Amino acid sequence: MTSAKPVAALEQSLLRRVLSSGDGRRLHLRFRPEVVERYRGMPGAQIIRTRTVGRIAFANRWSIDLGIAETDAGETVLHATLGDLLDRVPDEERDHWIAHLWIEPASTNFLQMKMVAGACIDDGEPEAWT
């Protein structure tokens, strides 16, 4: 299991850098570990890992580095930067990565609002923020 305090401090530091630079490419996206399975039997694929980092590589084609962490519930989760996904993973592989996105709790209405500029969701009367 990853210690929450050092990870929280690193995540906060990373967010500060992103906000200061205005460049979200350093933000991490999380994926289910099954994302790696696709590449295990592929000719030319090299999959290597330690306890906390890994790489999927195809010589002279593409590669991506991944963080490997464990949740409090003991589940393995992988993470990579948005920039690496944009710059290093070929377009034809992106749907596979999207299909293995680690889904965090989120407001469906808020996500829908952010998908369309100017969208508004009627979610009932305002409530006290407690």
Q: Roughly what fraction of the amino acids lie in strands?
A: 15-25%
Instruction: Give average pLDDT, whole number.
Output: 93
Sheet of most strands? 5 strands, antiparallel
Compute the number of strand runs: 5
Report the span from N to C terminus: 32 Å
Structural class: alpha+beta
Low-confidence stretches: none
Within the largest sheet, what's the order of strands?
1-5-4-3-2
Topology pattern, helix = H, strand = E: HEHEEEEHHH
Approximate helicity band: 25-40%
Radius of gyration, whole Å: 18 Å
Question: Number of helical runs?
Answer: 5
User: What is the approximate shape?
Assistant: globular
Counting copies of identical and different chains, the oligomeric state is single chain
Counting structural domains, the number is 1
